[in-house]
Amino acid sequence: MIADDKEKISLLEKQLSDNETKAKEDNEAKQNEIQQLIEKITIIEKIVEDEKAKSDELEKQLAENEVKAREDTDAKQDIIDSLNREIDDAKDKISLLEKQLSDNEEKAKEDNEAKQNEIQQLIEKFHY
Prior knowledge:
The chain is mostly helical. The protein is built from one helix and no strands.
């Protein structure tokens, strides 16, 4: 019985040693896996940080482009408004000149008729 107990103790000590070795190996493997995951996380965080910086720069450029586009649009609208005012002024001037031309034509027609009447009266005087 003592021999059996000694053998059982020896077997249990061997199992205990094997379990400790296996636990140590498992712990080392898990520690290695943790280290690899930490390295991957560090790389991913750096990528995210770089992408965020790129995104921020693109947003800044977009805002600058929007301001520039708004300024360009406003400047072009000012030019269009100015040209439209010039067109309106030219149309007003044309209307005024057309009125003056019509008035001048009417006056010339009236003057011609008066002179024609005067000529006719003079001709009639000579014939009588």
